[in-house]
Amino acid sequence: MAKPLAVVTGGAGFIGSHMVDLLLAEGFRVHVIDNLVGGRRANLEHHGDHPDLAFHEVDIRALAPDSPIFAGADRVFHFAGIGDIVPSIERPSEYMSVNVQGTVRVLECARAAGVRKFVYAASSSCYGLASVPTDEDHPIETKYPYALSKFQGEQAVLHWHEVYGLPANSIRIFNAYGTRSRTSGAYGAVFGVFLRQKLANKPLTIVGDGTQSRDFLYVTDVAAAFYAASQTERTGEIYNLGAGNPQSVNRLADILGGERVQIPKRPGEPECTWADISKIRRDLDWAPKVSFEEGVARILENIDYWRDAPLWDVETIAGATKTWFQYMQDES
């Protein structure tokens, strides 16, 4: 009996490459789609010339509905897209093009292929400055173009489910972290910033007083949740995904060690992100397995991965976040 085929868009990226690992371990053939803007071929090299893995360097916006990459696919995991807040404020049309229209292209490929399940990587940024813990029924408040584009991508996924009967689920990721997280591009996620600073023996740049907390979930737990969402008979569902156990930036700095320097608190940034994960626990029998301390330890074992990442300091961060301060506002 032939092995089932899964397509992973953004499969050379951070979460996507871990999804590929899991699918191969579960006995799937995997077609990876990635344009290598945010992903790295190196993230897949540990598989060598795996007979069940095929890589396709393609921009999702160039996909035609009859793309042979999707022929015979049983499942599609859609991670491809562009992230970061500040660049989305500066280049909104690009974000809408990739994250919305690109998603529509992937949906049409999945529909033409008759896939059994489509799982979309949505973002908790759609909630804005949310009350916590945040459940799936929380009001939507997209405060910048990245959040808007990811939410509209999700709306397209659910629309294709309702109108065309495409079996699909959406997972709103809170704060994923782990090995292979991005090392290039704009100033962004705290782990990449801190790890490069630690490698250079430079102070860790703490935003505000560092008491702000994030619902960090280790990347292998993220991949396991997406797999569970592809296994269930449930469709048309939205799931929040986090550890349900927020950790402060100061706690992360304590584990990493080293000197610290404070930089200004940013307007429009939540004090806490905290996913209510009761629905995904109940429906998919999923639960996080990797503790925060264990996850950070795994990263530190692989810290050289971030040696070529941008090295940020007080001055360069101020320049990179100028647009943020210009357009974002604190809640009154």
Automatic annotation (TrEMBL):
Domain of life: Bacteria
Span of domain NAD-dependent epimerase/dehydratase: 7-242
Family note: Belongs to the NAD(P)-dependent epimerase/dehydratase family.
Protein known as: GDP-mannose 4,6-dehydratase
Organism the protein comes from: Sulfidibacter corallicola
